[in-house]
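Changelog-adjacent note: as of this version, every example in the card shows the full chain rather than a window. The one below runs 151 residues end to end.
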Amino acid sequence: MSSVFKVQKTIREILLKILDNHSLEQLNKIPAGYSNNLIWNVAHCISSQQVLVYKLSGLPTLVSDEFIDKYKKGTKPEGDVSQSELDEIRTLLFSTLDKTEKDVNEGIFQNYTTYLTSMGFELTNVQDALDFVNYHEGIHTGIIMSIRKFV
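Full-length structure tokens:
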């Protein structure tokens, strides 16, 4: 496993612990002063990884367009996540990571549409995207750590 996937696996393990150590009510609570909640941040990480790695490579994503639309940049929770949605998010944390690593190792990422992130990073290939995903998920892990103090 390359270092980029070791880092992402560690981040995803932290996110899984958040899901496992909070009730559905806590995961759905939006604290005062915040625009989203714990579960949205976790699902947003999955959604963003799929867009940055697969969609910008011109490949089908491993999650539905509806999932991406619900958790993409600029969205916020429109209602509570159900237990079945939580179960799906929990599964997607590692199924998407494992499949991405397999796909990278198989060399399926041949094309990439250059993308300038809102943070000012220019992504020109899938390796850039994988590196940025870890940075992005690190930011959201920090936000999650902040939110959990208030739920």
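Structural remarks: The radius of gyration is 15 Å.
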